[in-house]
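Reading is simple: the token line describes the chain's fold. The lines below illustrate.

. . .
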Amino acid sequence: MNTVTVSRNKIEKEGGVVVLSLKEYQKMQASSVPTYYLRGQEARNLDKLVKSGLKNYKNGKTKVLKSLADFD
């Protein structure tokens, strides 16, 4: 068995340490959401959609839903 030493200052600076088995880490990694990068027209369309949504939120035109059943 190997011993690992981690500086207390490093732990405090980084906000903590997590120890996982390799198998558990691989399972967690496989179930994570993939990252997508949009380019061109797709990126511009998404930027417009986000801008519109933020504008509606700022103007109070949005509402909080507790479930999709509340959507009308």
In short: DSSP finds three helices and no strands in the chain. Residues 51 and 70 are 24 Å apart (CA to CA). The mean pLDDT is 90. The first helix runs from residue 8 to 14.
